[in-house]
Amino acid sequence: ERLAVSSELADWGSELCNKPVEVLSMPLIVDRSLKPTPVPEDGFVLAVGRLVDEKGFDVLIEALGSLPQHRRPEVVIVGVGPNRQALLEQATKAEVSLHLPGAVAPSELAIWYRRARIVAVPSRREGFGLVAAEAAAAGRAVVGTSVGAIPQIIESESSGLIVQPDDVEAFATALDKVDPQWGVNGPQRVAHLDPVIHGQFVRQLCDDLYAHRTRFA
Asked: Which residues sit opposite 118 in a β-bridge?
């Protein structure tokens, strides 16, 4: 049996080996006490991940900088990485208010999700897209790109908006258009990623595979 964590990887794997690949989403490893909370009126745009090119945070900053000043929210990017100084310099030139708190513990990350108004996932590449799933579980609307499993996690114009990677103009439009209240639809989009439910699925899959191998042994 061939498995992948997203439709994008499944399509790539299927084309590579010329055989069907089944999608098996990874379980949502997030603070189980995290529950959707009301969206703060004065919240910020949150992004989470290593400060590296593939995460596309430069696109996020450029997109925010293209918005009119009065519609340009603060952005917080949680994470560490080699692009920290470049992102700070880019934000200064673009007149974007950027806060980089560095690395935080998983329990503290839940607090950042609660304080955010929306979550941005501007990735150029993803295997899955765990940040989008965490944001959905926290009841936050997501502006993300069409990579990894993000399009399966976020339903456009229901729990967020999806655009093509590296499209600054489209990302800026989405940031300006997204309704933070769409986040209320997020938890149901990732309910199947709960570790308990996911574990039941994996156990059934293993039972099926064992039965298949036994039958042809």
From this structure: 45
How large is the angle between the packed helices 84-94 and 57-65, nearest 10 degrees? 10
Answer for the pair 5, 25: CB distance below 8 angstroms, yes or no.
yes
At 126-165, the pLDDT tens digits run 988 989 999 999 999 999 999 998 998 999 999 999 999 9
Inter-residue contact 5 to 27 (CB < 8 Å): no
State the amino acid at position 2 in one-letter form.
Answer: R
CA distance 205 to 41: 44
pTM for the whole structure: 0.81
Closest by alpha carbon to 84, among 98, 64, 97, 63?
A: 98
Structure tokens at 9: 């990887």
Contact status, residue 81 vs residue 54, Cβ threshold 8 Å? no
